[in-house]
Design a protein that fits this description.
The longest helix has 24 residues. It contains three helices and 15 strands. With 256 residues, it is mainly β. The strands form three sheets. It has a six-stranded mixed barrel.
């Protein structure tokens, strides 16, 4: 017996629904998407030693990242493009030191390699190792302090942030350095464009971490931003900064 036309539509919609969710699972991890690595910790009990860092976020408290942060090894850092990405970690295969549960952290720093040390004794962040140097409070969620280093399972997950994307404008005339922070969704920004109220859209170049550069004169113009994350999704924040913006100010836009 033939399937009624309306039933065919239902089946088609169900197919696309499950296919879409499957793709999201593949991109951001599912129960079968765990990878192996190791984790250590740094920064002290209050994580004050994690401030600043190679992503350029500065004060991680005021930027909203808190203490659930990590410095990534070369294999994960992607020369800074992974800044802002979120990872779920759990301690694994070490019953002496592991604690139950998981922790979700944001990549905010770089764990540099140490070629003078072997990969299994001090050179934890040497290529090709996938390593997380966690803020100490984050590490203590999944392992005991005395462990020092533990094996972990990890997966990429979507970032959840409060409020909108933040744009901090530094630099000076003809050198606008825009820090992009507090990014939800994929978390890691791979392209940014800026538009003044008297200009068209202009692509920014990544200077370092998540600091993006424009050499245009944009003083006295309201500013809009177009942000594209690693998953290809783009968010546009129109007229985020008013025409009387000043260097050093932070403005909040739309969110993924």
């Amino acid at each position: 017996m033939a399937i009624p036309a309306d039933s065919s539509i239902v089946y088609l919609l169900l197919f696309f629904f499950f296919f879409f969710n499957y793709c999201l699972g593949g991109a951001y991890g599912d129960d079968e998407g765990w990878q192996g690595g190791h984790a250590t910790f740094y920064g002290g009990g209050d994580a004050s030693g994690t401030m600043g860092g190679a992503c350029g976020y500065g004060n991680l408290y005021s930027q909203g990242y808190g203490t659930n942060t990590a410095a990534l090894s070369t294999a994960l850092f992607n020369n800074g493009l992974s800044c802002g990405a979120c990872y779920k970690l759990k301690c694994s295969n070490d019953p002496k030191w592991c604690l139950p549960g998981t922790i979700t952290v944001t990549a905010t720093n770089f764990c540099p390699p140490n070629p003078a040390q072997p990969n299994d004794n001090g050179g934890w962040c040497n290529p090709p190792l996938q390593h997380f140097d966690l803020a100490e409070p984050a590490f203590l969620h999944i392992a005991q302090y005395k462990a020092g280093i533990v094996p972990v399972s990890f997966q990429r997950v979507r970032c959840v942030k409060k409020g909108g994307i933040r744009f901090t404008i530094n630099g000076h005339s003809y050198f606008n350095l825009v820090l992009i922070s507090n990014v939800a969704g994929a978390g890691d920004v791979h392209a940014v464009s800026i538009k003044g109220s008297k200009t068209g859209w202009q692509p920014l170049s990544r200077n370092w971490g998540q600091n993006w550069q424009s050499n245009s004169y944009l003083n006295g113009q309201s500013l809009s931003f177009q942000v594209t994350a690693s998953d290809g999704i783009t968010v546009i924040s129109y007229d985020v900064a008013p025409s009387d913006w000043q260097f050093g100010q932070t403005f909040e836009g739309s969110q993924f």
